[in-house]
């Protein structure tokens, strides 16, 4: 059984301020990335102990350059860097995916490090008039390749959002509780890893039982930015519906991310 682990950084236990996720290579950022690697290895161990034969981990945070490879479980493979055809990875016959270290959508009350795609420039984001975030985006992309999301990890708001969009059958692992956008109650990283290990093993049992997320296309997608100047400079074919908002009817899953 082949498992794909998509990662983000904001939902990792021990990560609770943007200083850790926005500024690359600082001591705070390196600490966050070490914590990420600990959670990845826990998920990889759980997947293999649950019957996986191949585990590929895809670095999904800002520019896809966050993994510290020396720390990676030697059985896992990784995808890093930016490339145009996600098909190259997603078409390799994965039986399921984990979303590890995810966060809630923009403006989630007490959602830890909540944002959608860009925490500095993006505001709200809708799919078919429903406010949505990155968890739903990833699930739709994976669903297009018949890959179901089996497990989501993150703070309490992220896992709640995952259940709202993907249903209660998925495994969720809550590694912290958001008190504010940059404040949390957290477990020790060791405990979070133990929970993720158990969650991953449990998630392996869900293969074949959870359906991929496949909303009917075309989808109406709306992007609201924090600054009208961003839309002033926009050159694509989405429709401007007010000073800060673009809207587009999209036919393909890879087009739901950016206008
Ligand atoms: Zn991120």
How does the SSE layout of this entry go?
Layout: E1 2-7, H1 19-22, H2 27-49, E2 54-59, E3 77-79, H3 87-90, E4 96-102, E5 122-127, E6 130-131, H4 134-143, E7 149-155, H5 156-166, E8 171-180, E9 183-186, H6 189-204, E10 219-225, H7 228-232, E11 239-242, E12 245-250
Helix pairs in contact: 2-6
The structure holds zinc ion.
Describe the structure.
With 259 residues, the chain is α/β, with parallel strands linked by helices. The chain has one domain: Dipeptide transport protein (Rossmann fold). 28% of the residues lie in helices and 26% in strands. The chain contains 7 helices and 12 strands. The strands form 2 sheets. The chain has a 7-stranded mixed sheet with strand order 3-2-1-4-7-8-9, with helices on both faces. Strand 7, helix 5 and strand 8 form a beta-alpha-beta unit. The site of zinc ion has 6 residues, from loops.
Please sum up the structure shown.
The protein is an alpha/beta fold.
| CATH architectural group | 3-Layer(aba) Sandwich
Element string (H = helix, E = strand): EHHEEHEEEHEHEEHEHEE
CATH class category label? Alpha Beta
The third-level CATH topology is Rossmann fold
Tell me the number of strands: 12
Determine the number of helices (DSSP H or I, runs of at least 4 residues).
Answer: 7
Bound molecules: zinc ion
What's the CATH superfamily, by name? Dipeptide transport protein
Structural class computed from helices and strand pairing: alpha/beta
Helix content: 25-40%
Q: What is the makeup of the main sheet?
A: 7 strands, mixed
Strand order of the largest sheet: 3-2-1-4-7-8-9
Low-confidence stretches: none
Give the CA-based shape.
Answer: globular
Strand content: 25-35%
What is the CA-CA span between the terminal residues? Answer: 35 Å
The pLDDT mean sits at 97
Number of domains: 1
